[in-house]
Amino acid sequence: MRTSDKEGRLCGIQAIIFDFDGTLAVLNIDFSQMRERVFDLIRQFGVSETFVMERYLLEIIDEVFPILREHNPLSAKEFYEKAHQVLQDVEMRAAREGKLIEGGVKTLNTLRQRGMKVGIITRNCEEAVRKVFPEIDDYCDAFISRDYVGNVKPHPDHLNSMLEALKVSGKDSVMVGDHLIDIQAGKTAGMVTVGVLTGRIKRGEFEEAGADYVLRDATEICDLVKE
Ligand SMILES: [Mg+2]
Predict the structure, then answer these.
(1) pLDDT for 174-193, tens place per residue?
(2) Residue 193 to residues 100, 119, 168, 187, 208: CA-CA distances in angstroms?
(3) What angle do CA 16, 157, 76 make, to 5 degrees?
(4) How far is 131 from 89, CA to CA, in rounded Å?
(5) How confident is the model at residue 1 (pLDDT cuts 50, 70, 90)?
(6) Which helix (H) or strand (E) holds 76?
């Protein structure tokens, strides 16, 4: 059962789940180039942009795929592979320059020494994450990139797979991330949600999205969660 003490620190937390890019790592993924290249492909494959309703690229690719498949399954497969190759190219380029945030590894260690489980979930590909953090398996209890889940966050499947892997319930866990997707996913799973200001999202936007806490960076989680 989670409660908070006199100082407002959270008690009874069993697991902390972190996003990766912008939360545990500094990664400058060129999302506008990624988007441009995927939309170029969509046009090349003859699909009108007006069919695209989704907001994020992974979901857009999944949206265009069945439209193409209806007329030509082979071209649908080719589109899907090429689009994912674009994502991976841009992610790997960023990973080569990427690094963990200062104090990130120490934070993961501290939490685990306090008996908490640590999970890392990301919409990024596994290869890019391992390029930045090769020892990731030594510092967390579970790591689930987009390669291992059919539906990525904010879809509930991603966090639910993590909670299952860690054998904890949402109400005893905290979701930490730099994007509103992380807050949305955490809230759906009934978790305490924490926004960090190391990405592009500002404090007010996190508050508006209903984040329970907003921290300067992920290392501050150790002060929020009681030993
Ligand atoms: Mg992020």
Answers:
(1) 999 999 999 999 999 999 99
(2) 21, 14, 16, 7, 13
(3) 135
(4) 13
(5) low
(6) helix 73-97
Q: Quote the ligand 1 centre to 196 CA distance (angstroms).
A: 9
Domain ranges of the chain: 3-27+99-224, 31-97
Residue 38 is encoded by which pair of tokens? 């995927």
Name which CATH class applies to 3-27+99-224: alpha beta
CA-closest candidate to residue 60, choices 38, 86, 27, 76: 38
Instruction: Give the amino acid at 217.
Output: D
How many A from CA of 103 to the centre of ligand 1?
Answer: 17
What residue has token string 């999944």?
62
Name the one residue in this structure whose structure tokens are 């990301």. 122
**Ligand 1 center to residue 22 CA distance, Å?**
4
How do residues 188-211 score in pLDDT, each as one tens digit? 999 999 999 999 999 999 999 999
Ligand 1 geometric centre to CA of 145 (Å): 12
Q: Residue 210 Cα, ligand 1 centroid: separation in angstroms? A: 17
Ion ligand 1 residues within 5 Å by Cβ: 19, 21-22, 178-179
With CA atoms as reference, report the closest residue to 188 among 158, 156, 210: 156
* C-alpha 161 – ligand 1 centre gap (Å): 18
Distance 53 CA to ligand 1 centre (A): 22
pTM over cut 0.85: yes
Tell me, what amino acid is at 20? Answer: F
Q: Report how far ligand 1's centroid is from the alpha carbon of 109 (Å).
A: 20
